[in-house]
Description:
Layout: H1 2-47, H2 55-86, H3 90-97, H4 102-112, H5 115-119
Amino acid sequence: MAESNYATEQRLAGDNSAWGRVALAALLWLALYNLIHPLANWIAYGLFAQKQGSHLGESLAFFFYDVPKIILLLGGMIFLITVLRSFFTTEQTRAWLGGKREGVGNALAALLGGAPLYRFR
Length: 121
């Protein structure tokens, strides 16, 4: 009995450690997201020595701002969807989506990231 309590305590301690790493990763993500704009301007106007307001300078600044922003946003969305899906089993998702009208079921499946589960059962 004491061994199972120890195992439970270790599992819960591991869960807390994992959530701490998730919080740290979220803070790092937020910091990177807030640094993109100044960094993009520095690269375009400082490193490449383009004038502000020039077509090439503005294009470079936009590129160096938008590409990392899109990558960070997609990575964040994928991470959040993955965490959300880890709380639901395939059977729970199928049971919840089963019996819904096709349009409603498709919308709910898209929100859960489970479109293949709903359409191909």
